[in-house]
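Quick one, probably user error.
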């Protein structure tokens, strides 16, 4: 039987899938031909979801650690035993230390609002430390909002075929946003020229008409040089800027400091190329800049993104269908989030009662600094870590620090998972979670404008349970009297849809259930910043001009390591599927330019030791002209187990944050590379 479901994974495409189930098994996944973005094809990874759904590494019942921490020796227990043990430990910690000694760690294993966000209500009800969800998008968000305000949205991907010039800037969209590709092809057929700006050659560079290699962390300088040419040659749209923008004079003055020759020295992009790009971009008018998060994962990432996304405004591109910029569409979903995840417990807390102890001033922990939180936080120290929807041992910076924290004898670790991840190995209690096939949920998107609803199509495998079920059961055991903790998925969805916003008018749970996905009530074409923006002034903010903050190597660590996504993985979610591992070459490999290899006496295929100030890992080397000289690349956040030394790449990355938004800096790692002995 074929059923329609939205893909729950953390990807802009939020595909509509047709899944075939036979009895209790998922046998096939296909793309839905009726969805205007999915257009009938799924990605290489999601075709493999049946293998993930029924993988031997999927935990099917609760387990308690029997051996030492991290040993992976377990005993099976019942749900009651597991929940009672967790509740008992929570009560003891809440009595002895208070709520802040509890830290939830969660991110985007599922994008469903019910299973992703509503569990937070439990932690807010007990006054737990508040986790700032900064690992991915907050630097980009801060940069975007500084220019266009909040909420954040941009060009409709369905308008992209009208674009006349396209820059894919800091995004490997053919790998990470593959359903943009048909829109790009349509634009190209209509005459658009496509440029990719990225420090290394990848699938997207090969698809584009031109690839401009840029030194990592220098995008603001390139943006200013483009603006320099635009101003110097009078290519800006003065009437538009007059009407829709503010602070252009200050921005112009800053741009005048960046003649293309200066930018060439900083970015590595030839001055003549910069001039030509500026002219072509300005002449096309309906120019579209699709920015990804790549450029934001640097110390100056938010400012860089802001400088880049101001460029289409400078030439008035927002007035034309397909013209403008797009980082995310997520802000266009005007759902009523007042009670989602107990948001009201932070703004309008009820009086404490028993273990109900909401605390709007609870300590915040930046999720990029988990290692420090576990090892150094005091007053109170973290005593309970509850992990769900995330795999921090592999995805968070400074793996050695995270592992040290997880090994603490006095720390109680609960992991609620669909897979026996390398994080799950460190659990004191491991709980089995349902997948998107087994629980209902409501989905927005960050790469298009369709809202959707999934009804489950399979019974939970084994004893797996939804996140929200687990937290309801714990809430009961702590006698928490807070109504929203006990809401089921439908009740959460109805609360989210309870709004008068015109973009959601007529979109009810019944309609979503009937149609599967529904487009927000947005005009076509969608020209959101034709006359201004969502900033407090109502104008696109060019001032204060974004500062240029560069990513610099260090004398002892002269290379910059980028760690972008792999085509066949989705963060670590598919990292245990043998066929996808094989498709990625079987093991993680470091790419290095011949110039850098020669300087170190390194040859293609040999083993190397990569070290940073945070640690060292062993990888095999590929010598290739794909990266810029001075830049090395390792694609994919692989499970450690596939590497020669079984160590994840985040052994090398640090906790330093971006200029705004407290974001991660996964592409700005100074490293050195040296020969390593063969095994
Ligand atoms: N196949 C696949 N798809 C995915 C994911 C996945 O793991 N695999 N992950 C999903 C998630 S969670 C996210 S957030 C998105 C992320 O996807 P993207 O938004 O594409 O962001 P990144 O992967 O961080 O970086 C994209 C590109 O930026 C480049 N880059 C790095 N530093 C710089 C710089 O300083 N300047 C410029 N111009 N470019 C730079 C990188 O080399 C990389 O090619 O993809 C989603 N989609
Ligand atoms: N070096 C480096 N590190 C990176 C990145 C990088 O580019 N380079 N990318 C960063 C980015 S952009 C992101 S977004 C983060 C991603 O970090 P995470 O959000 O942690 O993503 P995943 O690694 O996919 O792990 C998600 C886990 O959630 C589980 N899961 C899925 N659905 C459910 C559910 O319904 N319930 C429960 N309980 N569990 C579920 C999955 O089994 C999976 O193990 O990683 C970051 N880390
Ligand atoms: Mo992400």
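Nope, works fine. Designed sequence:
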């Amino acid at each position: 039987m074929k059923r329609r479901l939205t893909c729950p994974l953390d990807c802009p495409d939020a595909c509509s899938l047709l899944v075939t189930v036979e009895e209790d098994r998922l046998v096939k996944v296909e793309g839905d031909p009726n969805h205007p973005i999915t257009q009938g094809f799924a990605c290489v990874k999601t075709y493999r979801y049946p293998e993930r759904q029924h993988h031997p590494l999927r935990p099917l019942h609760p387990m308690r650690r029997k051996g030492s921490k991290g040993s992976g020796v377990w005993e099976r227990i019942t749900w009651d035993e597991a929940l009672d043990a967790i509740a008992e430990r929570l009560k003891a910690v809440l009595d002895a230390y208070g709520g802040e000694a509890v830290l939830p760690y969660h991110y985007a294993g599922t994008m469903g609002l019910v299973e992703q966000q509503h569990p937070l209500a439990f932690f807010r009800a007990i006054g737990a430390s508040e986790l700032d969800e900064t690992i991915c998008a907050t630097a980009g968000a801060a940069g975007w909002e500084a220019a266009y305000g909040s909420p954040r949205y941009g060009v409709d991907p369905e308008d992209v075929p009208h674009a006349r010039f396209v820059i894919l800037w800091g995004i490997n969209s053919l790998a990470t946003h593959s359903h943009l590709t048909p829109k790009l092809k349509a634009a190209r057929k209509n005459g658009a020229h496509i440029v990719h700006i990225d420090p290394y050659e990848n699938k997207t560079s090969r698809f584009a008409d031109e690839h401009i290699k840029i030194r990592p962390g220098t995008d603001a300088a390139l943006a200013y040089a483009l603006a320099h040419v635009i101003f110097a040659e009078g290519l800006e749209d003065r009437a538009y800027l007059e009407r829709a923008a503010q602070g252009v004079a200050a921005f112009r003055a800053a741009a005048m400091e960046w003649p293309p020759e200066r930018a060439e020295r900083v970015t590595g992009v030839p001055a003549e190329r910069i001039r030509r790009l500026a002219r072509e971009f300005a002449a096309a008018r309906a120019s579209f800049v699709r920015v990804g998060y790549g450029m934001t994962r640097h110390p100056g990432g938010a400012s860089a993104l802001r400088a880049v996304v101001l460029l289409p405004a400078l030439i008035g591109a927002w007035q034309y269908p397909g013209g403008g910029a797009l980082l995310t569409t997520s802000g266009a979903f005007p759902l009523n989030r007042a009670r989602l995840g107990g948001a009201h417990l932070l703004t309008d807390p009820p009086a404490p009662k028993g273990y109900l102890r909401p605390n709007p001033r609870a300590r915040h922990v930046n999720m990029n600094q988990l290692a420090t939180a576990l090892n150094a936080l005091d007053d109170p120290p973290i005593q309970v870590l509850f992990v769900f929807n995330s795999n921090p041992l592999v995805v968070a910076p400074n793996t050695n620090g995270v592992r040290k924290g997880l090994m603490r004898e006095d720390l109680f670790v609960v992991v609620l998972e669909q897979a026996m991840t390398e994080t799950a190995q460190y659990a004191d209690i491991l709980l089995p979670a349902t997948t998107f096939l087994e629980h209902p949920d409501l989905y927005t998107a960050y790469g298009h404008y369709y809202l959707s609803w999934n009804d489950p199509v399979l019974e939970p495998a084994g004893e797996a349970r939804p996140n929200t079920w687990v937290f309801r059961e714990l809430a009961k055991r702590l006698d928490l009297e807070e109504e929203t903790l006990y809401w089921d998925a439908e009740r959460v969805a109805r609360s989210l849809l309870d709004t008068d916003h015109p973009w959601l008018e007529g979109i009810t749970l019944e309609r979503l259930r009937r149609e599967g996905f529904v487009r927000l009530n947005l005009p076509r074409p969608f020209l959101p910043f034709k006359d201004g923006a969502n900033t407090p002034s109502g104008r696109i903010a060019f001032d204060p001009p974004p500062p240029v903050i560069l990513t610099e190597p260090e004398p002892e660590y002269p290379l910059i390591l980028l760690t972008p996504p792999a085509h066949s993985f989705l963060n670590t979610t598919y990292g245990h599927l043998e066929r996808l591992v094989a498709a990625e070459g079987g093991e993680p490999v470091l790419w290095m330019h011949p110039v850098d290899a020669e300087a170190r006496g390194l040859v293609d295929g040999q083993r190397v030791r990569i070290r940073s100030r945070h640690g060292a890992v062993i990888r095999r080397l590929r010598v290739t002209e794909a990266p810029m000289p001075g830049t090395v690349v390792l694609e994919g956040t692989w499970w450690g187990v596939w590497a020669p030394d079984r160590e994840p790449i985040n052994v090398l990355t640090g906790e330093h944050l971006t200029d705004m938004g407290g974001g991660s800096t996964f592409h700005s790692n100074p490293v050195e590379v040296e020969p390593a002995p063969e095994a």
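Residues 559-675 form a domain with the Barwin-like endoglucanases fold (CATH 2.40.40.20).
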